[in-house]
Structures are given as structure tokens and as C-alpha cells.
Amino acid sequence: MARNLGLLVLFVCLTVCKAAIFQPVSNAHRSAALELFAPIDGSFGSLEETYEVLRTLQVLCVEKSADISPGTCPVVVETLGSSSSSAKDYFNALKVNSMLNCNVDDKIFEAITSKLQAVLKDATLLSDFYHSIGSLVLIKDQGSKADVLLEDADGIFHAIKALSQSDGKWKYDSSGAESSAYASGVALETLAGILKIAGAEVDQSVIGIVKNDIVKLFDSIESYDDGALYFDEKLVDAKEHQGPLSTTSSVVRGFTSFAAVISGRLNVPGDKILGLANFFLSMGVPGNIKDLYYQIDSLACLENNRVFVPLVLSLPSSVLSLTSQDQLKVMVNTVLGSDAPPLTVKLVQVISSISKDSPAVLNQDLNFDADAKTHSLDLVSKGIDVGKYTLVFEVLFHDPEHKKAYVTGERTKAPIYITGLIRIDKAEIAVLDSDIGRVETVKKLDLSGESSVSLSANHLQKLRLSFRLATPLGHPFNPHQVYLKLRHIESKVQHIYIVGNSGKKFEIVLDFLGLVDKLFYLSGRYGIELTVGDATMENSFLHALGHVDLDLPEAPEKAPRPPAQPVDLYSKFGPKAEISHIFRAPEKRPPQQLSVGFLVLTLLPFAGFLIGLIRLGVNFKNFPTSALPATFAILFHCGLAAVLLLYVLFWLKLDLFTTLKALGFLGVFLVFVGHRTLSHLASTSSKQKAA
User: Helix 47-59 vs helix 289-303: angle between axes, to the nearest 10 degrees?
Assistant: First the structure.
């Protein structure tokens, strides 16, 4: 649970849904409720969950019944009219019906009343009593004509009282091994139902004993460090075990219900009621329907209980600015934001978290603004300086005889921050001689604006930075963070030093001779940055003051090496450099004239071939004259021409693999047509020789 919200005022009153002046939690709770309470097909998973949703929305004054009724009312009527429904089913259906006012026939109520009265005759479990009595109370409250009576109200009251233990807690049944705080809330709510139906028939002495049991029950209450009080279970491996939220909610609902139907008051201390309110207010906004219901329903019970109505003191803002001359404002409201009775708020003490001497602001009455319904005080005129304080308030009632009994606690503490603009002056940076401290170079700095200094130093010199800080009231100011950072520009190695405070001024002296190891003997330019920050300092800053050029000696052999700089994790997700694939650069080619000459030389053999054919007397006398042999002969010569053309293409354009592939197909073709052509010539020659 989030326990750091402190004392806050919740949203709207249960009975009057009006907008309050300061309701920081109400909007968050309403938003959470609208987000969580999304019905499916106009209904929720169960009638129990539906009631929790409707009850929460009712307290928050969010009207959703019109969206839920069409899908839920038929389920309610069916459950109430079913003979197989249990007492728990009737109880959940009647609770939903009390919110939606479904059209249920009076005969159904009469039948349910008879069944529940029969269940009570043989009931031994606390849950049976709880669901049966609770259902009868709901039937009576819904204006049914059914005769809601208890044949033996006093006997039932004693039967439930018999389950109580000496520590003020109840058991779920007579055979139960341990008592339970959650069961106590259930039992008290059940007893309240009996008194509501037939109070006159119950022995008044037993009611007095129950009052004492409630006091004992509150003796077992537990607390957090911030004063919030709660109930918790101590059962081990129990089926009915509940957490602190549900257990505390059950007790609150039980004792407020019982207090509402008895005469007189319960002897429960008011500070414990206030502690319970703080428990529910300090948990923030629960993340599920049931926890949100427990919180809101419990606050509504505390808002209207007859014991003590808790009043919560809260600050609309825990940060005040002296620069803007903000006034301290305080609100006192009930837990759900309704108006408080006439009262006076006093600021009785201001405790500083820094100084032992607290400001002299004691017993100051805050001014009440009736329109804004806030109490205010001008702290600026009281001489309170910047810092963190704890304010101690006391609330006094004007009308102690008010109809309701309210409780605020003895004193309420609230943390507050006072902020302001811090004055920065006498800032300077200097280079000193290492031996005698003589100032070599000194430059003034404007830390409230932009400064850029250029310095140079060697390992025998020092660097000094000094300045003063003062609050708006002129007191010395000591912020939480004052750092000087040197950053080596080339290697990106950073060195951070804390600037000391002598009381009158901040000063740091860097002796480079003693820092050469820590600087890793890295000469070069170092950027200078100064950081001054505090939660109460409105002008916190991080300024680049300039740079210093350091001349350091060479690093010894065993000198420490600068650490590797961390890799930017976001860089690997950014765009990468474009990759360009570059093949091997082409070889240097010969001059064009040489290439042309070489081409001529390669053509000379072909020319010699042609000349040789002419000299040999080539003729076409033996060329086949028949159609088929002539076709093969023509194809053969065409194939030879294609091979020669392929050689030319290889030289001009084709690569070796493409050329060999084409040459393979041409070779097969030439073998086939050449074989047919030569076979024909051989056959013709044989015939001529034979003739």
C-alpha cells in the first residue's frame, strides 16, 4: 500500500453529493471506479460483485444504475424466485435489489421470509445467521408487505453471542478453534440486524456485554508508524483468513451498524476511530473492485457513525514559495469531504529538519475563510526561511455540544517545504601557485547567468573555486548537492568532487600534483561544470563554467589506465551507418591504340584462313543436292558460323561460364548435323568409286 499520502481529504459526502473545494483524491477514485466497473452485457460476474460496484458508485455519486439494471434485474428476480437459492444467494440478490429497485412481487418476499425463518431455527454457523438476518432486514427496509418477524429474537441473539470469546472476537461456529476479527465484524452486523427487527425482545443486559466485547476487540487493534490503525487476522491455514483491509472493513461495518441501533454510546476512544480513518485514507487508490469497495464503504460508515466522526486535517499544498508569497492553507473535513463544525485551527509549533532552533511561531490562530472553507496563515511575515519543516496543529471546537461527536486527535503533524530564490554572490575561480599559494589567474563568475572562462595550469598548480549562498532572509544556505565536475574532452573521462562548506562560503581547492594519478596523467582540455541543487532552492542549476587546459607529466609504466567508457545502450537501437559493397578495383588497362593493334593481329589468322581456302581452290561441286542432305550441310556450316560468332561475343561481352555453356549446346548440334553431312559425302564417294 502507498503510505506516503499522509492525511488527505476524500471526495464527496454520501448524503449530499456536492463538489468540495479541495478534493484531490475524489477525482482519482472516480476515474478508477469508472475504469474498473465496466459491466459485460449490462451485468457483472456475480450479484455480490454487482452490489460492491453499486455501493461504491453510490458513495462516489456516480450514477450507473441505468446501465446495470437491464442486465441485472432479471438475474435478481430469478434468484429471489428460485426455490433452490441459499440464504447467501437471497442476501446478495436483496442487496442488489435495494440499489436497483427491481420489480419484485410481494409474494416472492413472503416466500423468502418463510424460508429464512426456517433456516434460523436450525442455524449453528455464523454465516447462516448473518445471511438470514441480513436478508430479513433488507426485506423490511424495502417496504415489503411480508411479515418480517423473529419467533425467538432473544434466543438467536444469545446463540450468536455464545460464539464470542474473552478477547472480544467471535468464532465462525462453536467448533472453531480460533477467534477472528473479521468474524467479529460479521457478528456485530448480525446482532445489529436482530435489534433492528425486534430490539424490544432482546435482553438489554446482553447488549451491555456486547458493548464490553467491542471495547476488548479494539484493544487488539494494530498500528503503523504513521499512526494508522487496523485489524488483522492471526489465523494460520484458515479457510476464512482475510487480509488487513477486508478485516478492518468488516469490523468498521459491524461496530458502526451496532452503534446505530443501540441507545447510548460505545466506549471506543476517538483516537482509534481517527486511526481507522487514516488507515483507509492513506492507502491511495486500490487497483481492484473488492479493495476499492472495502475502502469506500468503510469511509462511508465512518462518515455517519454514532461513536465519533473523524475530522481530517490536510494541506492543499505541502510546498510554499517565499518568492510567490504563498500562504499556508489548511482544511479540516470529515473523511468524505463534508463540512466540519465550527472550529479553530492553531499552529502550535514549527519544527525545522535542519536547524535545532525552531522558528518562534507558536499558538498562531489561522484565519478562516468561510467561502473557501480553509484556514490560512501568512508564514512569510512570521520570518520563516526556506527549508523543510514539520508543522504541529491543534484543532479546537467552538461548539462542544454539537449533535455529532467529532474527533480530530490531540495534535496533527504535517510536513511542509518552504522554497525560495537563493542569492548567489562572490563567485570566482582561480589558478594558484602550488608552493606559496600565490594567485596566478583569477576570474569572476556569474553563477546566476552564463559564464565561460578559459584557464591553463600544470601539475604544480592548484584550481580554486569559491562562492556564497544566502536565503531570501540573508541566512547562509547549505543545499543538499554541491558538486564540481571535470570532464576530459578527448577521452570523456569524468571526475566529480564535493564542494565543501566552511559556514561562510563554499570552496574547493584541487591540487593537481596530488591528483595526477586520479586524473590518469591525461593532459589536455577539461570542461568544468558546477551543480548546486536542493528541494527548497527554486533556482537550482547545473552550469558549464568553461575549461582548463592541464599540462600533466608523462604517465609512468605502472600508472593506472583510464577506465573504459560505458557504451551508450541506446546507440545499438539507432540507425546504423549505410554499408556500401565495393568490389576490387579494376586492373589498369593498356592504351587504346595497343588494344586496336592487338585486335588486328588476332584477325590476321582468319584472313590467312580465307586466303588459304582460295589458294586451295575451294568449290561447291560436292555440296549435296538432295533436300535432306543439303539441309544438314547448311545447318553444319551455320553451326560453324555460330561458334565463330560466340568467340566474338566472348571477347566483347560474355563471361567464360556463359560462353562454355552455349558452346556445349552448339558442340552437340555440330556433332549431329556434321555426322549426317559427312555420312552422306562418304556414301556418295563410295558409289562413285564403284561406278
Answer: 50
Predicted pLDDT at 15 = 32
Q: What's the DSSP call for residue 180?
A: B
Contacts of 372 (CB under 8 A, 6+ apart): 21
Characterise 586 by phi-psi region: left (phi > 0), alpha (psi -120 to 50), beta (else). Answer: beta
Which residues lie below 8 Å from residue 452, measured CB to CB, with a gap of 6+? 544, 545, 546
Half-sphere exposure of 463 (CA within 13 A, CB side): 23
pLDDT at residue number 581? 77
Give the whole-angstrom CA distance, residue 485 versus residue 529: 5
pLDDT at 159: 93
Torsion of CA 389, 395, 396, 397, to 10 degrees: 160
pLDDT at 177: 66
Torsions phi, psi for 332 (to 5 deg):
-125, 115
State the pLDDT at residue 399: 66
Q: What is the pTM for the complete model shown?
A: 0.69
Q: How many CB atoms lie within 10 A of CB 372?
A: 13
Query: How far is the CA of 420 from the CAs of 29, 37, 373, 391, in angstroms?
Result: 33, 44, 27, 18
Residue 329 DSSP class: E
What is the identity of the amino acid at 353? Answer: S
pLDDT at residue 361, rounded to an integer: 63
Q: Between 87-100 and 47-59, two packed helices, what is the crossing angle to 10 degrees?
A: 30
- Phi/psi for 646 (5° steps) reads -65, -35
Sign of the C-alpha dihedral, residues 169, 170, 171, 174? positive
Beta-carbon count within 10 A of 391 CB: 22
Question: What pLDDT is stored for residue 289 in this prediction?
Answer: 85
Q: What is the pLDDT of residue 489?
A: 94
The Cα–Cα gap between 419 and 539 comes to 10
What are the C-alpha distances in Å from 202 to residues 130, 150, 183, 206?
Answer: 17, 11, 21, 8
End-to-end CA distance of the chain: 124
Place of cell 514539520: 390
Distance CA(118)–CA(544), nearest Å, equals: 85
Position 10 scores a pLDDT of 29
Residues (pLDDT < 50) of the chain are 1-25
Q: Which pLDDT score, from 0 to 100, does residue 480 have?
A: 93
Q: What is the spatial distance between Cα 505 and Cα 217, in angstroms, rounded to a whole number? A: 59
- What pLDDT does residue 652 have? 86
Whole-number Å distance between alpha carbons of 314 and 335? 11
Do the beta carbons of residue 358 and residue 352 sit within 8 Å? yes
Instruction: Give CA–CA dist 509/500, Å, rounded.
Output: 9
**DSSP string computed for 608-661:** HHHHHHHHHT--STTS--SHHHHHHHHHHHHHHHHHHHHHHHHHHT--HHHHHH
pLDDT of residue 67: 67
Q: Rounded to an integer, what distance in angstroms lies between the CA atom of residue 332 and that of residue 335?
A: 9
Q: From CA 681, how far away is CA 671, in angstroms rounded?
A: 15
Helix (H, G, I), strand (E, B) or coil at 368: strand
